[in-house]
């Protein structure tokens, strides 16, 4: 049975998250994780400064399924099945030792899967104390004088044939990223509720929503469910790459990257359960993760009393919304996805400046036969040419129609998917001198041929694509040529 429990699907990141859940439940304000490389004798320890356990409490904690998941729990409890400590540990190692200092002083118990496998009577032998020769590994707990230490030895799922110290360190980096994401709401602030150190270095929180960033095009107030207590959502559309520094763009991409990190972030007691998923929602068929919606992220908080309804699994890494919430969540997601799509398409730049609509060169026609992209003949640059075309007007209209009918939509879609970004448009990465040349042609025409004053011409250009992205160049246009 224990060997079967090792296959529940944990990885090292999710397993250590489960261990830290117990530390949080014990009131710990600090957790120290150590990855110690010693080839086949490598080990991982997790030491907290929580309340510790009594001898009876430790014995109960080391039992498999020591509690009924249907029992009512404290609202702050992060556990459910009474299996996390054991199954998370067994998924990574063959020897688990838990030492604690509580009202009965220092206590230590261990599970040794090799001992169980070789036992002649087939009994469940829970052993006392650390493994002979490993007593020194629990000394940091004695030095601390309080808390609980979890020791993993015989790391057969981590240190495999051919593993190197660099592989071990790379895994530690992945763990650091994951813990910074899962517990970011505990780690944030000038006085965080929790401090996690990995090999002596503080784990930094990763905020999936870039809270308070001025470049976010959408971040409304929190939506509370109208009838269900404790369920609330906060919708975010993140800044486009063009609105971020290179460092911020890399950081905000998260452990799995921009496209993979879109969707709902489900929290229970502010502990992250699901990091980016559309939860099987959708209109018609389930939404998939795509480039167009990668700026959409929705924070969703649920109480631990809803675990059964949400089908929270033992690993606390999957959740499925109950039927009674699907319509509410779908409406929130549709609004957020729509705004994210527009922000992505417009590269994070507004389509409204003040109370004026930006004049765009392309428009979308939605017909029964499908979507078509048309050049907007009312765009100032297009209208200027059409008005002065004279006898060339039919040829120019034919040329525009050919351009409309040959837009390389599929090629653009493939290039966007492969490059993980929209192609360069809007004079992106173009020298200001080149932009100014085009700008001056339009500006001169508006004044000399259309009768605009210099100030009204500049005002028009400030809301004309793509010059609305270059307000300083527009403002620098001269009153006189």
Automatic annotation (TrEMBL):
This is ATP-binding protein. InterPro entries: HATPase_C_sf. Keywords: ATP-binding, Nucleotide-binding. One of its GO terms (molecular function) is ATP binding. It comes from the Bacteria.
């Amino acid at each position: 049975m224990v060997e079967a429990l090792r296959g529940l699907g944990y990885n090292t990141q999710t397993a250590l998250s489960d261990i830290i859940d117990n530390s949080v439940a014990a009131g710990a304000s600090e957790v120290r994780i150590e990855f110690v490389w010693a080839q086949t004798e490598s080990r991982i320890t997790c030491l907290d400064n929580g309340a510790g356990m009594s001898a009876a409490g430790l014995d109960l904690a080391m039992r498999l399924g020591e509690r009924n998941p249907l029992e009512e729990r404290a609202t702050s409890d992060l556990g459910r099945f009474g299996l996390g400590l054991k199954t998370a540990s067994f998924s990574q190692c063959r020897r688990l030792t838990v030492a604690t200092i509580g009202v009965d002083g220092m206590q230590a118990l261990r599970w040794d899967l090799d001992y169980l496998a070789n036992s002649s009577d087939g009994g469940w032998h829970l052993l006392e104390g650390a493994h002979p020769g490993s007593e020194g590994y629990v000394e940091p707990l004695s030095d601390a004088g309080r808390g609980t230490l979890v020791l993993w030895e015989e790391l057969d799922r981590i240190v495999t044939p051919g593993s190197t110290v660099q592989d071990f360190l790379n895994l530690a980096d992945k763990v650091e990223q994951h813990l910074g994401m899962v517990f970011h709401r505990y780690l944030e602030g000038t006085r965080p509720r929790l401090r996690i150190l990995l090999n002596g270095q503080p784990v930094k929180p990763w905020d999936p929503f870039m809270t308070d960033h001025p470049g976010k095009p959408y971040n409304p107030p929190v939506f509370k469910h109208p009838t269900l207590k404790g369920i609330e959502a906060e919708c975010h559309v993140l800044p486009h790459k063009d609105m971020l520094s290179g460092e911020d763009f890399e950081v905000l991409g998260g452990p799995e990257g921009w496209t993979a990190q879109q969707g709902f972030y489900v929290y229970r007691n502010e502990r992250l359960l699901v990091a980016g998923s559309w939860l099987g929602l959708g209109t018609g068929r389930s939404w998939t993760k795509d480039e167009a919606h990668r700026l959409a992220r929705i924070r969703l908080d649920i109480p631990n009393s809803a675990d059964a309804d949400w089908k929270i699994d033992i690993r606390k890494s999957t959740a499925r919304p109950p039927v009674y919430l699907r319509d509410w969540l779908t409406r929130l997601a549709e609004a957020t996805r729509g705004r994210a799509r527009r922000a992505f398409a417009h590269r994070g730049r507004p389509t409204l400046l003040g109370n004026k609509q930006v004049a765009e060169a392309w428009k979308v026609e939605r017909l029964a036969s499908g979507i078509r992209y048309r050049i907007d003949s009312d765009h100032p640059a297009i209208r200027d040419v059409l008005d002065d075309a004279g006898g060339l007007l039919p040829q120019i209209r034919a040329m525009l129609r050919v351009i409309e009918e040959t837009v390389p939509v599929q090629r653009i879609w493939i290039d966007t998917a492969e490059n993980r970004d929209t192609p360069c448009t809007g004079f992106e990465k173009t020298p200001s001198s080149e932009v100014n040349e085009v700008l001056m042609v339009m500006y001169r025409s508006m004044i000399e041929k259309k009768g605009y004053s210099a100030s009204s011409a500049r005002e028009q250009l400030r809301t004309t694509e793509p010059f609305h992205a270059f307000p300083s160049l527009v403002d620098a246009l001269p009153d006189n040529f």
